[in-house]
Amino acid sequence: MRDPGFTLTLRHLQAGYGDVQVLWDVSLEVRPGELVALIGANGAGKTTTLRAVASLLRARDGEVQFGTNRLDRMSAHDIVNLGVAMVPEGRQLFNQMTVEENLLTGSSLSRTRPLRRSNLDRVYALFPLLRERRLQEASTLSGGEQQMLAIGRGLMSAPRLLMLDEPSLGLAPTIVEEVFGVVQDIRREGITVLLVEQNVQQALRIADRAYVLESGRIVLAGPGLELLQSAEVRRAYLGI
Amino acid sequence: MVQFVQIVVNGVFTGGVYAIIGIGLSLIFGVMRIVNFAHGVFLVVGMFTTLFFFERLHVDPFLVIPLVVLVGGLLGIVLERFLLEPIVRAPEHASILMTVGIGLVLSNLLLFAFGDAPQIINTRYSTSTWHLGPITFSTALTIAFVLTVVVIGGLALILERTDLGRSIRAAAQNADAAELQGINTRRVRSLVFGIGFALAALAGALLLPQLFAHPSIGPTYTLKAFVVTVLGGMGNVAGAIGGGLLLGVTESLGAAYVSSSYRDAFGLAAFLLVLLLRPAGLFGRSRT
Ligand SMILES: Nc1ncnc2c1ncn2[C@@H]1O[C@H](COP(=O)(O)OP(=O)(O)OP(=O)(O)O)[C@@H](O)[C@H]1O
Ligand SMILES: [Mg+2]
């Protein structure tokens, strides 16, 4: 699984919507096996960054590279086939499909089709509850269960790199703990993780490294625990 | 009583074909979020393709149908790829103008190629019948109905059980999320438009033995397809079956008991009634 060749590199990325530029010169790097957090206030551009990496949004300038592949020139579905998956903000499940159908949508790629059964078992092992609910419509799951399904669905394409956009958003504290536990499990399986979080303290605690995004610019970077101690981060994001 | 049963049977058989048209329109709307104003013209293209293969090239009628489906599918894929894909992200009116335009161009091409005279197809099925007790069945309509059931059943299986079907449903429910699962939504759109065209063309071939084909009848069928889809709930394939049957039976009853010259109006009346009472369609569930 761990291949030294697959580093995600963003170089001088510029992106936006219509006339509004959101990202200004964002550069960052996620190396194989790392768990990297991307934090920042509401509207800083975290989601925009992930969408640009996933090619749901075209970069205006700059490069996104994964291993030797230029992602900014590929379509979103081809990027998934390369091994970069994303669990979007707000879960975005296929609500009128069953739990299992949601999971199966992620494994119709040429690369992952043969691994379908074993990937499904792996996801069910990680989330036993989803197996119990496999024939239930996704819209009938609780918020926490839906988040687990969204993460499970992201794992079905057997990604090398998983991008998670605010997986703890709107969940009860005990469920938030569970989500952070799952993120660490995923990383322990050898999957590289790029984690966007508003839950800054917990994200920095589990991250190897982190980047702080402010109004579309990277303003701080460093090891998670180091940023957790930094006066700037404590003032701006932890209210200490 | 016998007469009533006879009329309902005819209505159900025709309604099955209407369901096919409605399902195509509904699939296209579900995945592409466009209302296809050319849908009825696709049906007419199916009629003339059938006439062409059968009358001019003398292809066996059982071979003609798969050929017509194939031609329809390919035309749909090509039209989508070159005319609709470029305006995927454009405002809604762009797709309205485009599909209206496609319909106009196609029907005028048909006029140019086949002329203005109404045409009928002469097969031995057109007039032959069979009997079940006192009820008489038209052979052509019976074949049409059997094919309809097989095609709708097959389509339902594909949508429910296969990767392609799941990809189509995923793209309809959330296109961005589908892309994030590795689904090529552009390909899904082309395919769905191809399926829609193929189904409409099939419906044209199946209805041909009972109708005069004329290049200008497209809009009537676009309207029928709308009625079927709205009755069943936009984007709801199962609902389109119910909508098609309801329309077929209503038309058949109205034509028999009130006046056959207003056949098309009865469907519209039923449509307005349903919309007044159940705005989300008969089988629709409100979108959240
Ligand atoms: N589809 C869009 N069209 C126009 N502007 C947008 C769109 N999506 C986001 N924006 C704008 O881009 C900026 C960055 O948004 P983005 O969603 O990337 O922020 P974020 O860091 O993910 O915030 P949050 O923590 O609230 O999720 C915001 O100012 C937002 O208003
Ligand atoms: Mg966001």
Automatic annotation (TrEMBL), chain A:
Keyword Transcription regulation: no
Transmembrane segments annotated in the record for this chain: none
GO molecular function, one term: branched-chain amino acid transmembrane transporter activity
Protein name, entry field: ABC transporter ATP-binding protein
Family indicated by similarity: Belongs to the ABC transporter superfamily.
Segments forming domain ABC transporter: 8-240
Top-level taxonomic group: Bacteria
Native source organism of the sequence: Candidatus Segetimicrobium genomatis
Keywords: Amino-acid transport, ATP-binding, Nucleotide-binding, Transport
Automatic annotation (TrEMBL), chain B:
Record-linked Pfam families: BPD_transp_2
GO cellular component terms given for this protein: plasma membrane
GO terms under biological process: amino acid transport
Membrane topology note: Multi-pass membrane protein
Ranges annotated as spanning the membrane: 12-30, 37-57, 63-84, 96-115, 135-159, 191-213, 225-249, 261-280
Keywords: Amino-acid transport, Cell membrane, Membrane, Transmembrane, Transmembrane helix, Transport
GO MF annotation terms: transmembrane transporter activity
Superkingdom of origin: Bacteria
Protein location: Cell membrane
InterPro entries from the UniProt entry: ABC_transp_permease, BCAA_transport_permease
Record-linked PANTHER family: AMINO ACID ABC TRANSPORTER PERMEASE PROTEIN, BRANCHED-CHAIN AMINO ACID TRANSPORT SYSTEM PERMEASE PROTEIN LIVH
Sequence similarity: Belongs to the binding-protein-dependent transport system permease family. LivHM subfamily.
Protein's name according to its UniProt entry: Branched-chain amino acid ABC transporter permease
Organism: Candidatus Segetimicrobium genomatis
